[in-house]
Every structure is written in structure tokens, then in C-alpha cells.
Design a protein that fits this description.
With about 500 residues, the chain is α/β, with parallel strands linked by helices. The protein is built from 18 helices and 24 strands. The strands form seven sheets. Strands 1, 2, 3, 5, 13, 14 and 15 form a seven-stranded mixed sheet that branches.
């Protein structure tokens, strides 16, 4: 039997999954690590934490499965996008990685826009200058930590740092590179024009591959640390959302998914590079060679629920520990008892600023309508509804761009919640489905690895064969009508508070 490994280097944890040749899970393991916030709006992680988590989880899945290393034919890497990893001449990490949700680079985004021009920047990179993207992080280090910048010899994304430690190769894939704001999106290569105008040396950047292409094999050093064979191939892989798309079968026109992880995403496949001239949604190369995707992102989706649970509703964690159950299951039970609209309570999920549709690093979270009647359960439902409204913002823009969506899938941790899926179905006004497999990005990059290793002919064929649909939620007409009204108020609140957010940031 031949096997594949999919590794997802997430924001909260790394998950490694061993699959058989039919993409069935054989063994899985995960390991968490911290996120550091040295200042308000900043977000950093230690790349060595990711690496150690990868080592631990690979060893565990091999040990638990009893699979022979020689039978593991390919490895696919997925991970959080946009994070900046800088290596010196000795390939040592220079500073903590500035990750995707960091919002410190507002001035650098202005610098990029001035150098390139907003319209031209969108034409090449398919996106306006964004604080979350890697290019502005590179400029921030150059502007504020010149000594670190002068030491830099290699720039990598989070999953690609792991690839380097696995193979010794400096490489990335088109989907992850799309989020750096240095890639020519229509032509799927580094933009010499952007690099020249921003004065970034192209030699710092890794080689770009299509997602199923082989980028290298396991090094002797990594083999000794993990037990993997030096003959096992490592493919390009994909950014987390592009990988999740493959793992949910979103590999053809008309198909889309909503994921609720730490961030939230509405993602639609397209065979052509559709670009929003206003830059409200992202257009990236996807993991299917020669194709693209359009996606809207809310920064603090599952993060909002976790933040509330950890800081204001710890009773759920305590009760779950006593009962031996998942705290989110208890939350879902209580939320289901709260009427639609959370007793006229609204939540704006802007804990880390926002990307779609506002592109505003200064906006912050808000509860609107609080009264003495409200309970923790009401507030929890309001959090889930607020995140869903934010995702509806994304979905509405896709419809405005004439990106047809005939089928919507749900994935991520929040996608496991039936109550949350029902909210989405009611707001979108369409069916929301799940698949039987729950491995998301890990499954997606395992499929890519299978293509690269010659086990599958192409991505679409593998998805058609191995990905099965499971549950679905039908929209409720009366709930849809209510949420249409609620969404209008939700959008109005941002408009009314926008200046206040800026004033708060200036204090």
C-alpha cells in the first residue's frame, strides 16, 4: 500500500495526517503553539515552534500507524498565508515571523501604493496594498529594523520554511505566493516591475511552482529526525485556503466554500483571473494549475468565538473538562436555545481589524444593543451571527462580480457546528453542505502530493474520486428575511463607527 502525508501549519496548531492511497485517514496528530502580540494590532510567531510541531506530529503519525517509511510516497504542505520568515546567510531565523493578522504596516501599504499606483498594483497583484500581505511586512522590517533587513538572505512563507527544513530547497507555490503582493497574478510568476519599484532583491525570493509539482525530496538530516525516506517527494502544496478548496472538492467553476477557522473565508473557483477593481476581495492563483480563485476574508471568525470563550465564558471550558466533552459542543447547545437575532444584539467581529470589504486595520470589535436581558448565550449567538454577517459581506461581493456559485460547502472548525452552518444557509439563501472527510487543507495537499508522486492523474480526477458529500442545511425563508434586515443594520454600524475607529487608533 502507498501512503501520503498532508501537513497543515495553522495559526493555533500544526496538524499532520497520514492517508492511504484512497485518501482515507490512517493516523493524525496535532500540536499547538502560542501567538505573541507585543503591541496592540501586532501578531507574531516563532518559526521554530512550527518546525518542532511538524517533527513531533510526523513522528507520531508514523509511529501510531506502523507504516513503513518507504511506502510514504509524497508530502504536501499547507499553512497560514502571508507570514514573513527571514533567514540569514546561515539559514537561521532572524526575527519572529510577522504573521497574516498583524496590522502594523499601514504606512508601508501607503508606500507601496505611492510607488506602484493603486490601479496598477491591482492590475498586477490583483489586490490593493494590504497590511496582512507579506510585501508590506518586508518594507516594515526595512524601515524599522534595518539591521535585520541587511542580514536577510532568504524570504519564505510559513509552510515554505518547513519545506526548507525538510528538503533544503527554497521554494513556494503559486497560491501561497499570491498572498505576498509580489506575484504577477495573471501570469503566475514574480513581478519584476513590482520588485524593482519596491527595491526588493528578487534573489531573496524562492522559486515558484504549481501546487502539484515536485519541489524536492526529504533531506538526509530530516530523514534522520523523522524516519521519513529520502525518496519521499515534497510538492508545492498550497496556502491554507487553496488547500482547503482541494480538500472540499472546489476545483471547478460554480463551486465555493465557506471556512470558519481562526479567520473566515468565502472562496470561489474560477477558470479565469476575475479581479475586483475596488480590491474588496482577493484574487489569487489556486492549487489547480492554470486556474484562479476569488475570496473574501474576515480576520477574526473562529478567533472571535475563541476569544469570547477564553475571556468571558470560561465556565464552558470548566464544564467541558468535567464532562469530558468539547466546550464548543456545549456552546452550540446553548446558542441553539437563543432566538434568531440574539434578542436584538449585534456583534462586529473586528478584533484584528478587517480585510473584506473594508480594508481597515483600525476597526475593532463591538457589541451593539447590550441590555440587562442579555446572557452569555445571547452574546455567544451574537458573535456567531456577527461573523456570519461578515462572511455574507464577502458572498455579496462575489455575486456582484458575477462569480456564479451553484454549490456552497462549509469547512473549518466552525463548519462543524450545525447551528453555524444553518446561520450561513439562512443568510446566503442557499444550501450549505459538508463533506464526510474533516481534514480540509491536510487532505487537499495530500491529494496534491498524490498527483506529484504519480499516484493520481490530476487534481480534478482525484477530487471527483475521493471526496464525498455528507450533510446539508436548507435555508429557512423567514430567517433569511430577518437576516436581510439585520445585515443592513450590521453594515450601517460600520459606516457610523468608521470615524470613531480612527479616533480610537489615534489616542
Amino acid at each position: 500500500m502507498e501512503y501520503l502525508i498532508g501537513i497543515d501549519i495553522g495559526t493555533s496548531a500544526t496538524k499532520t495526517v497520514l492517508f492511504d492511497a484512497n485518501c482515507h485517514v490512517v493516523s493524525s496528530a496535532s500540536q499547538e503553539y502560542p501567538l505573541y502580540q507585543p503591541q496592540n494590532g501586532w501578531a507574531e510567531q516563532e518559526p521554530l515552534d512550527w518546525y518542532n510541531a511538524v517533527l513531533v506530529t510526523i513522528r507520531k503519525v508514523i509511529h501510531d500507524s506502523g507504516v513503513k517509511a518507504a511506502d510514504i510516497k509524497g508530502i504536501g504542505l499547507s499553512g497560514q498565508m502571508h507570514g514573513l520568515v527571514m533567514l540569514d546567510e546561515k539559514n537561521e531565523v532572524i526575527r519572529p515571523s510577522i504573521i497574516w493578522c498583524d496590522q502594523r504596516t499601514g504606512r508601508e501599504c501607503e508606500e507601496i501604493t505611492e510607488c506602484v499606483g493603486k490601479k496598477h498594483l491591482i492590475e498586477i497583484t490583483a489586490n490593493p496594498a494590504l497590511t496582512g500581505f507579506t510585501a508590506s511586512k518586508i518594507l516594515w522590517v526595512r524601515n524599522h529594523e534595518d539591521q535585520n533587513y541587511r542580514r536577510c538572505r532568504h524570504i519564505l512563507l510559513p509552510k515554505d520554511y518547513i519545506r526548507f527544513r525538510m528538503t533544503g530547497e527554497y521554494a513556494t507555490d503559486v497560491s501561497d505566493a499570491s498572498g505576498m503582493q509580489l506575484l504577477d497574478i495573471p501570469h503566475r510568476c514574480w513581478s519584476d516591475e513590482i520588485l524593482e519599484k519596491l527595491e526588493i532583491d528578487k534573489a531573496l525570493l524562492p522559486k515558484v511552482y504549481e501546487s502539484p509539482e515536485v519541489t524536492g525530496t526529504i533531506s538526509k538530516e530530516f530523514s534522520e529526525k523523522t524516519g521519513l525516506s529520502v525518496h519521499t517527494v515534497v510538492v508545492g502544496g498550497a496556502g491554507d485556503n487553496a488547500a482547503a478548496a482541494v480538500g472540499t472538492g472546489i476545483v471547478s467553476d460554480g463551486r465555493a466554500f465557506t471556512t470558519i477557522g481562526t479567520s473566515g473565508v468565502v472562496f470561489a473557483h474560477t477558470s479565469e483571473p476575475r479581479i475586483d477593481p475596488q480590491g474588496r476581495v482577493h484574487t489569487f492563483c489556486c492549487a489547480v494549475p492554470g486556474c484562479w480563485h476569488v475570496m473574501g476574508v474576515t480576520q477574526a471568525a473562529g478567533l472571535s468565538l475563541r476569544w469570547f470563550r477564553d475571556n468571558l465564558a470560561e465556565v464552558y471550558k470548566d464544564k467541558a473538562a468535567l464532562l469530558g466533552v468539547d466546550s464548543y459542543d456545549l456552546i452550540n447547545q446553548d446558542v441553539a436555545k437563543v432566538p434568531i437575532g440574539s434578542r436584538r444584539l449585534l456583534y462586529l467581529p473586528y478584533l484584528m481589524g478587517e480585510r473584506t470589504p473594508h480594508l481597515n486595520p483600525n476597526c475593532r470589535g463591538v457589541f451593539f444593543g447590550l441590555s440587562a436581558i442579555h446572557t452569555k448565550a445571547d452574546m455567544l449567538r451574537a458573535v456567531m451571527e456577527g461573523v456570519s454577517y461578515s462572511l455574507l459581506d464577502c458572498f455579496d461581493i462575489l455575486r456582484e462580480m458575477k462569480v456564479d456559485v451553484n454549490e456552497m460547502m462549509a469547512c473549518g472548525g466552525g463548519g462543524k457546528s450545525r447551528i453555524w452552518r444553518q446561520m450561513l444557509a439562512d443568510m446566503y439563501g442557499c444550501e450549505v453542505k459538508t463533506i464526510k472527510a474533516e481534514e480540509g487543507p491536510a487532505l487537499g495537499v495530500a491529494i496534491l502530493a498524490g498527483v506529484g508522486a504519480g499516484m493520481f492523474p490530476d487534481v480534478q480526477t482525484a477530487c471527483k474520486e475521493f471526496i464525498e458529500q455528507d450533510t446539508w442545511c436548507q435555508p429557512d425563508a423567514s430567517s433569511h428575511t430577518y437576516y436581510e434586515k439585520g445585515h443592513q443594520l450590521y453594515k450601517k454600524l460600520y459606516v457610523q463607527l468608521k470615524d470613531c475607529f480612527d479616533d480610537l487608533a489615534a489616542l
